[in-house]
Amino acid sequence: MLGDLLKKTFSSNKKNNPFYEKSNTEEIQIKEQKIHADIEYSMSIFKKIYSFPDNKDVKFRTFQIGGLNKQACLISISTITDIKLLDEYAIQPLLNNDNPSCSIENLLAVQALSTVDCNKDAIYEINKGNAILLIDDYTKAYSITAANFQGRDVSNADNEIVLKGPKEAFTEKAASNISLIRKRIRDENLIVESAVLSKRTNNELFIVYIKDLANEQLLDNIKNRVNSLNVDSVQNLALLEQHIEERKLSLFPSILYTERPDRASAFLEDGYIVLLMDNSPDSLVLPATFWSFFHISEDHYLILF
Fold this sequence. Notes:
The protein is an alpha+beta fold. It has helices at residues 2-15, 25-31, 39-49, 83-95, 104-107, 119-127, 174-184, 216-227, 237-244, 261-269; strands spanning 58-65, 70-77, 113-116, 131-135, 141-144, 190-196, 204-210, 256-258, 273-277, 283-286. It has ten helices and ten strands. The chain has a five-stranded antiparallel sheet, with helices on both faces. A five-stranded antiparallel sheet has the order 6-7-9-10-8, sandwiched between helices. Strand 4 (131-135) and strand 5 (141-144) form a beta hairpin. It is globular and about 65 Å long. The protein starts with a helix and ends in a 19-residue tail after the last strand.
């Protein structure tokens, strides 16, 4: 009787059709296209990609640029973009302009401004929290840096507690973590490079090193490992560590974890390479040596005679 029940169960499972991921070939082709000069056509493309108006936090702000008499559209995701910044430094200057010969670059009083000429690049900027400005008769779009991701403030370390030294720990914001490192290493040779890890989530990894101290061959090896990843999603450094670990079965890992910016900075000054990422309140130090695991954060504040 039990055998008949098992047989019935497995035979019924075979009849169930599996759910496969839908691959929208048309949407992929649209993303590869250049920015169209017809703003209405471009807006229809972005509305289709972002499922507007069902997608409630995606905003399309259309207006007329004063002086230039050009129709414009500002596309942003309200939950990750600084709306007040866009209104004060982008929309208002464009609306109030009365100079017909003024360029868009001179009108936008924002901290960082760049141009994109492909739909795929514009979508990437929007997903990063930036805003995209489309203008009629323009075959390029302007990317306005206005990201405003929510996160917690800098707090004390939970795992690496010390008596001597600062109490600050990394947060889930990569920008804040880079700031904590730069506060300790005020060197023009401190380099912060970025790389996109996954195909679907497009999470950004930051590779931090000091140019004249880090080994170039080791740096190239890390970049090659990161760029060769063929995965849909890497949400944090804990998952990335499993992908790039060189000796997975070794008793001694080749990657060191630390949540303290002072310890990461000390490793950087010794020529190591540090990896940072959004959504990760920690950092990875490469390459980890045997003795690295026998030193605690407080050892950096002890003088050996």
